[in-house]
Amino acid sequence: MSNPVFPGSAASAGIAASPGTAASPDIAASPDITAVASSAGPATIPGSTDEYPPLGELQTASLREELTRLDDLIAGRVFSPGEPGWDEARTAWNLAVDQRPVAVVIPEHVDDIAHTVAMARALGLGVAPQGTGHNAGPLVAENGLADAILLRTSQLRGVQVDADQRVARVEPGALWGDVVAAVSPHGLAALAGSSHDVGVVGYTLGGGLSWLARSHGLAANQVLAVELVTADGQQRRVDAEHDPELFWAVRGGGGDFGIVTAMEFRLFPIAEIVAGTLFWPLDRSEDVLQAWAEWTASVPDSVKSVGRVLRFPPMPELPPFLSGKSFVVVEAAIQESPERADELLAPLRALGPDMDSVHPQPVAELLQLHMDPPAPVPGYGDGMLLRELSPAAVRAFVDAVGPDSDCALLSAEIRHVGGAATPDAAYASAPERQAPEPGAVAGLDAEYLVFGVGIAIPGSGDALAASLGRLLSRVEPWRARLDYLNFAEHERSAERIFGDRVHRLRALKRLIDPTRVIRSNHPVSR
Ligand SMILES: Cc1cc2nc3c(=O)[nH]c(=O)nc-3n(C[C@H](O)[C@H](O)[C@H](O)COP(=O)(O)OP(=O)(O)OC[C@H]3O[C@@H](n4cnc5c(N)ncnc54)[C@H](O)[C@@H]3O)c2cc1C
To answer: What's the predicted TM-score (pTM) here?
Structure first.
């Protein structure tokens, strides 16, 4: 099998996927799952599983010896507790999460990943892949990774762009900043997250809600192929024709099905956008957010916006106009001409914002629009999807986080979703986009997304928990049926994230990873 777009990829290197047929909605009837589980098709990494003695022999060997052996075998590094570099290696992007795995592996090569999986399986350990640790909270919820190796992909950040085909191929540790830097010189845009240092793979496995989502849908729907090492230590390349059941699962089903080593996805010819933020004083929260909610119901899918309450702590890193100040803001990204954008924004500008930064700009600048932290921080947050945003829902939000609330959160936001980001729109548009049929999460069956987060500094825990709890409980009456994996920063049941599709996901997991070698932050078995 050859890969016409990226000749150096696993497919063309002979690391092939097992043959499959069209995806079936009924797992029991799907021949492809059996193929995934039993196929001798995919190439085994030379020497990977054979490098390790059988389990009985290993039980008598010390873990430290095995880790040393792995360290000698791979090009990357293995860190054991207490050795120099240990704390740095185990630290997640979210500094509030304390990760204490058996060991940390930082691979330099895809083969290192296969060796790590083989060793872990032989020792009865799990392997938890992690790009950055933005969503590490639910990963440590069970037992703090006490029986797992943390595999951090931070050294594998390559990005290849085929500008003619409008396709990017990323290594597993690539960040959105890496992709945007690689594609924007070609006048292309990816369905990137709001933050430069969110991992492309983790984001896309969970769905991927970008500033372009209302016009282009979730990032997962633009994935063309995924390469991964599964629990059996084999490298596979999956796409709409090869292992389609696994391809379905990794598009929205999260990181439970294997360790992704590469991902290929579509890009779009968007170079410029009109974007920016309107700022009002915090005490305008109610009237601004009521007007914004009404406005969102009238705008076309080319407009994506966020209504948000921000309380900036006094910090020298912040510009003086933000440091120590509180605001209600509307952030907007508008794929229209500047004139049309002005027309659309007129009702919000009529509310007299104190500051207005909306202007035409390169689409690459969207990575700054949401004012996400520039570097790792200790965060305490969580989110919820809303079916609708009625005036009563806005009032509940403002009661919880507005000027009279004594809210300890740095940010409480409502993202406008809907449009092409809904499941119905994703299924309807797939044929005309000549895109694969959507995967496990086609879209978000909700019109809005609420997310609150604060900085978890010592002594702030109770106030943050109370503020976040108040926010989520106040908007609960408008809660959608399901939650969105990427904005679920605390553990919850897999049913809550995947709904009915959880049965199909669980059946696949049982077939390809019955002993749960691969650990993810939102396991389908939870
Ligand atoms: C500041 C900030 C901004 C954000 N903005 C957005 C946004 O705009 N839109 C949006 O949709 N989400 C957004 N998110 C949520 C983000 O997409 C999730 O936190 C996502 O899980 C991050 O992926 P990561 O790889 O960076 O994080 P990680 O914590 O490293 O990974 C999360 C999970 O992804 C899986 N995973 C990661 N790498 C691999 C791999 N190679 N193979 C298999 N599984 C893997 C694992 O299960 C892992 O536990 C944001 C989060 C933060 C904190």
So the answer is: 0.91
Q: Report CA(382)–ligand 1 centroid distance (Å).
A: 13
In the reported structure, the alpha carbon of residue 133 is separated from the centroid of ligand 1 by a whole-number distance in angstroms of: 7
Ligand 1 atom with minimal separation from the 192 CA: 8
% residues pLDDT > 90 (the chain) = 83
3-state secondary structure of 89: helix
* Full DSSP string of 352-386: --SEE--EEEEGGGHHHHT---SS-B-EEEEEEEE
Is 375 exposed, middle or buried (CB count within 10 Å of its CB: 0-12, 13-18, 19+)? exposed
**Distance separating alpha carbons of residues 389 and 395, to the nearest angstrom:** 10
Q: Is 230 in the pocket of ligand 1 (CB under 6 A)?
A: no
Q: What is the pLDDT of residues 402-432, one digit of tens each?
A: 999 999 999 999 999 999 999 999 999 988 8
**CA of 97 relative to ligand 1 center, distance in Å:** 14
Q: Residue 354 C-alpha to ligand 1 middle, in angstroms?
A: 34
pLDDT 10s digits, 471-525: 999 999 999 999 999 999 999 999 999 999 999 999 999 999 999 999 999 999 9
Nearest-CA residue for atom 44 of ligand 1: 255
Sheet holding 103-106, edge to edge: 77-79, 103-106, 148-152, 126-130
Could you tell me the domains of the chain?
A: 49-152 (3.30.43.10), 272-495 (3.40.462.20)
